[in-house]
Amino acid sequence: QVQVVESGGGLVQAGGSLRLSCTTSGLRFTTYAMGWFRQAPGKEREEVSCITWRSSTTDYADSTKGRFTISRDYPENTLYLQMNSLILEDTAMYYCAANSVPYSSLYYCPAQESRYGNWGQGTQVTVSS
To answer: CA 51 from chain center: how many Å?
Structure first.
C-alpha cells in the first residue's frame, strides 16, 4: 500500500522560512517524478513545484520561483520543499504527490494534478503579517 505523508507545516511570519518534508512508502521513490501542490481556501489546487525521477529537471510556479526549492533524498525516500521569503499569499494546505507512472520523462515533470496518482493528506502552512 502506497503512503505519502507530509510534514513541516506551521505558522510563520511573512519573510520567514519553512521546510516541508514528504516521506513515501510502498512505491519505488527512485523511479517516480514528485510534485508539491497547494490549495488556499476558496481556490483550486495549484502546482507549486515538481521534480523528475532522477532530479534532472525541476519546475516551479511563477509565484514561487526564486523563493522555493524542491529537492529529494533518495536513501530516505523523502521529498523536500524549502520555502523562503514567505508571503501571505503562500498560506495554503500543501500536498505532496507521486506521478501516476514510474520512469516518466527525464526532461519534464508534469504540472497537472491529474498526472499524479498518489497523494498525501497535506500539511498546513499559514503566513502571518
So the answer is: 9
- Ordered DSSP codes for 9-55: -EEEETT--EEEEEEEESS-GGG--EEEEEE-TTS--EEEEEE-TTS
pLDDT digit string, tens, across residues 14-35: 999 999 999 999 999 999 999 9
Q: Residue 115 CB: number of other CB atoms within 10 A?
A: 17
According to DSSP, residue 110 is labeled -
From 83, 119, 67, 97, select the one nearest 10 (Cα to Cα).
83
Phi, psi of 115 (to 5 degrees): -85, -5
Give the mean pLDDT of the chain: 95
**H or E element: which one contains 123?**
strand 123-128
- pLDDT tens sequence across 75-90: 999 999 999 999 999 9
